[in-house]
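Severity: low
Component: inverse-folding endpoint
Summary: output formatting inconsistent between runs
Steps to reproduce: submit the following structure tokens with default settings.
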């Protein structure tokens, strides 16, 4: 496809590559991905996750979260990794709606990983994106250890990447089968059954909120595409990504 742009003298400015000075994306669905991912994790813990999933309004999802909290989810422990990012903030909002106690880990806590503390939570919501080798959060060897952990909500969903932070899982789950069993657990070892939710289009479950949020992020940058002095920084970054991809074709 890129070759067709080159032959025609055009350029492809992918919104995914609109980044600011810090290299982070300025337009993304992250908040609502985190919100939905955490919400599904709560519902699975409460045995209230119905399949197949279907798009809904936020007030409908929030009502389910509130009911899950009243049914006992508010007595369980949730850990959000990457808590300060877009997805992490969305995840926290969903967990607060359910009334769940939240442990918040960001770069400092995940660089010096405390595995026993991690395994002492009922729900792990993974919102970490990394491009460098990092100690994974949950590995195969962890499954046979004493642990409280029962549900992995993998918002990042980098299931086949070299820096997958949850290498116990290497495939996505779906709207038809949102949760998949990874380990049956062993009461004698003090570990519970473990399931994973790894859906790669989470924001689609809340289409209105996701669309409005994305549009609100993108709209201020549209005028920068036609600046008299040339495209603004995010658009230049997207252009550079295109140029680099073209070079790799040569």
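Observed output (run 2 of 3):
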């Amino acid at each position: 496809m890129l070759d067709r742009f080159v032959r025609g003298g055009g350029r492809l400015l992918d919104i995914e590559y609109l980044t600011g000075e810090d290299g982070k994306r300025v337009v993304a669905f992250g908040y609502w991905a985190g919100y939905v991912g955490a919400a599904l994790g709560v519902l699975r813990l409460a045995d209230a996750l119905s399949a197949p999933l279907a798009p809904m309004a936020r007030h409908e999802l929030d009502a389910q979260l509130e009911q899950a909290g009243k049914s006992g989810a508010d007595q369980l422990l949730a850990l959000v990794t990457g808590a300060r990012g877009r997805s992490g903030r969305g995840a926290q909002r969903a967990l607060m709606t359910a009334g769940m106690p939240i442990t918040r880990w960001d770069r400092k806590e995940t660089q010096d990983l405390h595995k026993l503390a991690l395994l002492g939570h009922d729900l792990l919501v993974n919102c970490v994106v990394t491009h460098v080798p990092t100690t994974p959060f949950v590995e195969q060897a962890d499954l046979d250890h004493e642990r409280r952990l029962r549900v992995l909500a993998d918002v990042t969903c980098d299931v086949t990447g070299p820096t997958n932070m949850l290498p116990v899982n290497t495939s996505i789950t779906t709207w038809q089968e949102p949760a998949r069993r990874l380990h049956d657990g062993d009461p004698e070892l003090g570990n519970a059954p473990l399931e994973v939710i790894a859906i790669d289009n989470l924001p689609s479950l809340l289409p209105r909120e996701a669309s409005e949020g994305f549009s609100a992020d993108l709209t201020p940058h549209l005028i920068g595409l036609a600046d008299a002095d040339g495209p603004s920084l995010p658009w230049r970054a997207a252009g550079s990504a295109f140029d680099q991809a073209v070079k790799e074709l040569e």
